[in-house]
Amino acid sequence: MNLFRRSSNTGDASGDVTEPIILPSRPNYQSFTKDGKPISRTTAILCEIIFTTINFLNYTDRYTVAGVLLQIQDYFQISETQSGLIQTVFIIAYMVWAPIFGYLGDRYTRKYILMAGVISWSFFTLAGSFVQKDMFWLFLLIRGCVGIGEASYVTVSPTMIADLFPESERLKMLSVYSFAAPFGSGFGYILGSFISTGMANSRWSNEEDSWKWSLRVTPILGIILVILTFIFVPEPSRGATEQESSDNQVEITVQTSLKEDLIYLGTNKSVVFATLGFVAVAFVAGSLAFWAPAYIEDAYTEDEVDFDSNTIALGFGLVTCIAGVVGVALGSVAATLYRRVRIESEALVSGLGLLLCAPFVFIAVVWVNSYHFISWTFILLGEIALCLNWALVPKILIETVVPNRRALAAGLSNMIGHLFGDAGSPTLVGVLADWTHPANNTYAKFQGLKIGLLTTPIVSVLGGAAFLTCAYFYEADLRACQKLMEDAAADARRRRASTAASKDHPDLEDAPIREGSYEEMSPFTPPTSDPILT
């Protein structure tokens, strides 16, 4: 892989030299547990399968509600604005707890945090299926609790994948993991619609309550995956695959305060602009996922087209599945190939994807009631472009952030992305629809949703600009991250050697050992001399 670029920062008088971009790991770097036991490749692959399955189930559960939204509206007798609150409350709880779990994930055993999260959202998803029709407020509260459980898993799992696989395989494994997100979202529509249709007028349910059964499948599977996680998933050492010598590997466990972590992440430009790009992705994805099926149904009703609500939900779910698979695969392949030329390829591909998404979504929204097939085609193209970055954003955060801050970085990115993205976008679209066309008829609902959904192309362009700005700062942040990790690992090895020396020489047992932060070990703030080494 050619990772050389022209630079004018160093070299001879001409200023034209070639500098290597040294990636933080190599293919033969092996992961290991906190007690030093090596983790086999078979075990790492099994962990990847379990994480991906949980991620798939996570998104399936999240978007099952959208697949039966009209049935939920009829059951609780709620408006568009109230319907938007279902997703908004879920995302608010999700984003508030994501950085909390990120902070915990950088300091405690991530495996147990993950298991607790899956148990939590499985329980509350099941509980939501038993809410009575006059208790919509309770349904909202339960969906918020589901969001808390999901926040724990989504925050820590990418960091565990990063510690199980070296850089040469990391994007591939994150891509497989990310396939589950859009594919699970689409499957959620299909599952909700399929089960609702199958249970209507059955011996166990009637048409009014049939949607509840769609919330009773994923909890069972969630508990099974918790058991598999407990049995087969080890806790990988943080930063294991960043180190070259398998004989001298140490866990990078530099202790830093929350204030230091926040300052570090807030001044990391790649993290800041990648997060802003993710805001746009979440905004567009949340708006389309929640409102597109209802919008298409209103358009077909206005055009007097014979249709079935479940068929549209199934169709949109299928489009989302295809877009997810194609988009994630295309984005990962494009970034891998382009990385031979530009080290910041992940950010560039993410930015170009959002810029392409904008015109596709605009055409799909405007032409939905005039050219049905063309509209569906552009929905597919828009979602493919939107999904290009699903595996790339986690990789940007992992490669530009030191190991003991990655979970917090993921948590904060999720919080900010959802706070300004899909936490408010469904409600915003619903409010715009009710405000611009308050009349309670199909035509008014359709025109109102059109105005609301036309905010998505604008946000998509802004997100593309944010990712392109991230690409500008990526190389410098990557180099800084590598240097901090090298210094932290070297410091850990010195402390381990000092501990071994103190056992052989009891007179050195009380000698102080430096416990500095990443910043104290950076090239810009040289550490004080170690009393033992001097």
What topology emerges from the helices and strands here?
Elements: E1 4-7, E2 17-20, H1 41-67, H2 69-76, H3 80-105, H4 110-128, H5 136-164, H6 167-199, H7 218-232, H8 258-266, H9 269-302, H10 309-338, H11 345-366, H12 372-387, H13 392-400, H14 406-419, H15 425-436, H16 442-453, H17 455-504
Antiparallel strand pairs: 1-2
Helix pairs in contact: 1-5, 1-6, 1-7, 3-5, 3-14, 3-15, 4-5, 4-7, 5-14, 6-10, 9-10, 9-11, 9-13, 9-14, 9-15, 9-16, 9-17, 10-11, 10-12, 11-12, 11-13, 11-17, 15-16
Backbone CA Rg? 25 Å
Low-confidence stretches: 1-28, 508-534
Element-by-element helix/strand order: EEHHHHHHHHHHHHHHHHH
Strand order of the largest sheet: 1-2
Largest sheet: 2 strands, antiparallel
Helix and strand content put the structural class at: mainly alpha
Structure summary, number of beta strands: 2
**How many helices?**
17
Characteristic key phrases:
disordered C terminus; disordered N terminus; two-stranded antiparallel sheet; 17 helices; 534 residues; mainly alpha
Question: How would you characterize the overall build of this protein?
Answer:
The protein is mostly helical and 534 residues long. It has 17 helices and 2 strands. It has helices at residues 41-67, 69-76, 80-105, 110-128, 136-164, 167-199, 218-232, 258-266, 269-302, 309-338, 345-366, 372-387, 392-400, 406-419, 425-436, 442-453, 455-504, and strands at residues 4-7, 17-20. A two-stranded antiparallel sheet has the order 1-2. Residues 1-28 and 508-534 have low confidence and may be disordered.
